[in-house]
């Protein structure tokens, strides 16, 4: 069986509403083990399943549920079918990730909600309800279950004999947990260990969780450590009566996991109950909010959601308008030193004249913009590191030359216009890897939002060229740079490649990320009121891909809607959202 | 870390500066590390034909772009256009390679040749593709000149010419040959053109690798000839090969080298 997660690199940002529409029984607790990860040795696993002695409250199904970077709520009956495919939901109300950094490019911390409670108290249900109600697409869920310590052989044996206490603070790797949570709060990409409950060790692969605006952290010992408590912006304790918790546990372990009633009760009395009394219940005093009855408590959930929404609004980041405001101060400053403008000759002017002319047809536009891109990428390559090399010529003489230092080079194009630069980059650097980022403008706020990204795995030690045809306000480019930084790319190794930039865009990016190189073939002075570059070249993507119907559809009925789009997404570097509400990709496809 | 040599004009050798002083109409492309790396690949004897073609095409492309960028201002017409944002943009346009004048009196079309390329067969043909990828409609003529390997100083011999019509009126003729060794074929090609009525001011010789001996010989005969080159090597050996050179360019580009 194909492991459901490991090969899926796509980071999918989705809106829970769409899931409600598409999968009504998603939260059902009917759990089947067959569809969970069991990539190796199915036969061994079958026996291991029988003597599985996990004592925590979480079903294995839930782990799978968390295994996707951004949770996809597919736990339940339909899950087996769903795991074989990677489904990208985009809701009817199309939303991507709004900016999570300010105008100077600094990230804002994520809002972290900690949920604590006894085993089977309904922490997960509360977390799910919060996500559902929040309706914020960028939520990461972190479970303490991933941070169980690796057991020694002796302890492993104990665990198999039902003698190991999983409900004790010592069973958790708090150091790693703290580090992970800190990084997650800072918007960094983190690697989450995957705990294997059969071998009681960590899998040798990890799952990657990407930074989010809201992080929900849940676990029985969530409030046990002072350092971790300090990271939590909001602490929720789910307080469910002990008899209900025992009843749930019995039901779950017996009907779903096929265990004997004696064993379950013995375990409960030996470990689970004392642990609750000794370590979990006392941490209730740290909670900001105590939720009785768990997930059914609608009022409590509403309160939490309202509070989180208020907090998010308070730190709501209006990057685009801020950028314009900030430019008032910046425009007096000289162009940043990290800005590299191609030598301005009559020839580049001539090429620009052709692509800027609104009368230029598509074939000429493509031909001459390709020429410019070639010049641009060749210029950019001269900035890569070189080393001296001596080769032998056919005359048997040595020739002192240069060669590229063996450095990984990666292009990241901002869909869609940035993709036009990919062929030019591939042509001049043959083994370049290409990543993609889709950033679109929210039609209501005018803010850029991140919708999709797929980057090469080893991007953190590559030289990265961000490709975008034009940079107007720089909002999209800033988001792309921020994404790369969050993926641990060295700021000094990032360069932004563009055909046409505005002075404002260069200054905004150049002074926010002063090590990021900006390479362009031309620089225009102004932006007009709709953030178009002036004189500019229009919407590059539309002209290159021929999707501007201006020449042949003057009398068509969709003219109005087109105009509406251009009002909202004035800039060329951010394009209007697609209308298709649901995109589906086979996992096979996404792996290509 | 990123290369510190970010200046495109940083790569001029001292010997090139002297040559430029000596021959005012000589233009040597300043080599960035990137172009130098391409040169290194070409010169490496272990580079196979496939790679050789690829790297040579890239170098030629960049050399031709350089040639166009140093054309004097009267090759560009000042032109104001409207951008899609309805803002005027002061730009310029390269003169088209052929301009058509509609003659109203007798209703015939007169065409005026402005730019054309001429390649010296066979190695010069490797640069045609590059020229076409910059100016798709440029007329290209051919001159077949071979070094006569049996004469003592490898004298060049003219076999065949096929040139665009009205070549004498052309504003600029790009004569292409990747190697300038003894200069024999270059001189013969120019001699042929001049015999047809072309003046020396109309000719630009575009060349990938030159050597001081060749330059001296050509300039001694045609001091006003414009030469654009990518690299000036050390000199010639007794077999009239450029050193360190790259071997026989045609053989390596067309894969006809016998192992």
Furnish the topology, listing elements before pairings.
The complex is a heterodimer of chains A (592) and B (259).
Chain A: E1 11-12, H1 16-22, H2 42-50, H3 60-67, H4 79-83, E2 86-89, E3 111-117, H5 123-134, E4 139-143, H6 153-160, H7 174-185, E5 190-196, E6 201-209, E7 214-219, H8 226-231, E8 234-239, H9 242-256, H10 261-280, E9 289-292, H11 298-314, H12 319-330, E10 339-341, H13 346-356, H14 362-381, E11 386-392, E12 398-404, E13 409-415, H15 422-428, E14 433-441, E15 448-454, E16 463-467, E17 470-471, H16 475-486, E18 494-502, H17 503-512, E19 517-524, E20 526-527, E21 533-534, H18 540-545, H19 559-568, E22 582-585, H20 587-591
Parallel strand pairs in A: 3-7, 3-8, 4-7, 8-9, 10-19, 13-14, 13-16, 16-18, 17-18, 18-19
Antiparallel strand pairs in A: 1-15, 2-22, 5-6, 11-12, 14-15, 20-21
Chain B: H1 14-22, E1 26-28, H2 33-43, H3 49-69, E2 76-82, E3 88-94, E4 98-103, E5 108-113, E6 115-121, H4 128-134, E7 140-147, E8 156-162, E9 172-176, E10 179-180, H5 184-195, E11 203-210, H6 212-221, E12 226-232, E13 235-236, E14 242-243, H7 249-254
Parallel strand pairs in B: 1-12, 6-7, 6-9, 9-11, 10-11, 11-12
Antiparallel strand pairs in B: 2-3, 4-5, 7-8, 13-14
Helix pairs in contact in B: 2-3, 3-4
